[in-house]
Each structure stands twice: as structure tokens, then as C-alpha cells.
UniProtKB/TrEMBL annotation:
AP complex mu/sigma subunit domain residues: 1-112
Name of the protein in its database record: AP complex subunit sigma
Known role: Subunit of clathrin-associated adaptor protein complex 1 that plays a role in protein sorting at the trans-Golgi network and early endosomes (TGN/EE). The AP complexes mediate the recruitment of clathrin to membranes and the recognition of sorting signals within the cytosolic tails of transmembrane cargo molecules.
Key words, A-Z: Cytoplasmic vesicle, Golgi apparatus, Membrane, Protein transport, Transport
GO aspect biological process, one term: intracellular protein transport
Amino acid sequence: MINFVCLISRQGKVRLTKWYSTYSQKERSKAIRELSGVILSRGPKLCNFVDWKGHKVVYKRYASLYFCICIDEEDNELEALEVIHHFVEILDRYFGSVCELDLIFNFHKVCLLASQPKL
């Protein structure tokens, strides 16, 4: 099960979060802060999977954004990578060649795409 999805820039700024499990606002802030620190500090040749508090976080960097998905420990990491890639392809089709500014200035459209069941 997907617990949450977040998009983080290389500077550590959160561009999008979508929560599918219940977390308090304090827990959300702490989770994003911890994960952005861990993911941004990892080298480019390291694995795209991180164990975090009994969950797995799968991430992939596209241009200047890190697309992260937190899944349950027993879920398939490669399937999560496919979900990330599929989401990026949808954004590319919708915006042309998607960039970070598309996500910032069309936030409502990206949230709508993220909540579609086809994802």
C-alpha cells in the first residue's frame, strides 16, 4: 500500500505531497524533513530504496526533482518505481516536457492528476 507520495527539489523544497495514510501535521513535517535529508545526501550510484521506520521509501530523480513513494515493507520496490515512472510519463504528456515550474504554477492540475485512480 502506498502511504504517501512526495516530490522534492534538489534544494530540499517540497513541491507536492499526497498522503494516503493518516499522519498528524507534526508527523508529516518530521517525515518529510527526515526523508529529504536522507535522500538528498545519497550518492547517485546508490540504490533507490531506503528503509524508513518499518516502511520502504522508493525514489527516483528526474531532472531537478526527486519523486518519492513510501510503501509497506512487504510491497514490491520495482512496482513502486514503475508507478513513479508512469506518473512522470503522465505529467510529460499533460505538460509537454514537464519541469519544476509546471508543478509550481499548475499545482491544482498536478494534484488532480495525482489523485486519479489510473495512477
